Amino acid sequence: MSAEAPNGTTGMAALPQALQGDAARIASAIESLLFVAGRPLEQNELRKVLAVGEEDLQAGLQALAHILEEQRRGLRLQRLGTQVQLVTAPENARYVAALLGLPLTARLTPAALETLAVICYRQPITRAQIEAIRGVNSDRALASLIQHGLVAEVGRAPTVGHPALFATTPEFLQQFGLTSLEELPHIDGLPDVQRAVQALQERLPLSEGSAAPSGQGGQAPGVVEDHPAQEAAP
Description:
By secondary structure, the protein is an alpha+beta fold. The protein has helices spanning about 25-35, 45-50, 55-70, 95-100, 110-120, 125-135, 140-145, 170-175, 195-205; strands spanning about 40, 75-80, 85-90, 125, 150-155, 165-170. The strands form two sheets. Strands 1-3-2 form a three-stranded antiparallel sheet. Strand 2 and strand 3 form a beta hairpin. Helix 1 (about 25-35) packs across helix 3 (about 55-70). The longest helix has 17 residues, at about 55-70.
């Protein structure tokens, strides 16, 4: 129970104000909220609950990410766009897989990997743009990536016909052991297909499996297999 303020009201309303300017306490509060939520939360949502400004929120997020990684905790802070969530540390994927009875690794076909690499470095991107870069029809590869949750439609392009725009998902980050897209290998300028594929493959050996969402079973660790006769379980 919260203590009563001198005027007889509880001190709960005044509590969030005490968080302002205190990155450590904001980080602790964010960790609690993400753990209880068990799902990605919008940064706007966190700001409102904590009653802090953008600068304080970002300081808290940075502090939490640093603490989790620096102390080699079993969780990591994952960011994608305006959403954040807690995921398991990728180096612990084998243990998570063993507990859940899931396979640890699999492979993407060259076509799917090419398509995924193009999307990673050019997102958001339309189907026509993907095919223009790859030089071949990408319907099947794109459909497979969408089916396995690595890619999703995120909007419509402001051009004639308003074609769908595609981008990577939080599941992509989990499968590749990333906490944000900024962790992808850096490429100067706009990469061609082979450079993008090579950069993405550089990330694969670093991740023995995926980072599963905290408090959830998640998908099977590792990169899903793109095979016409045997689709991976969702």
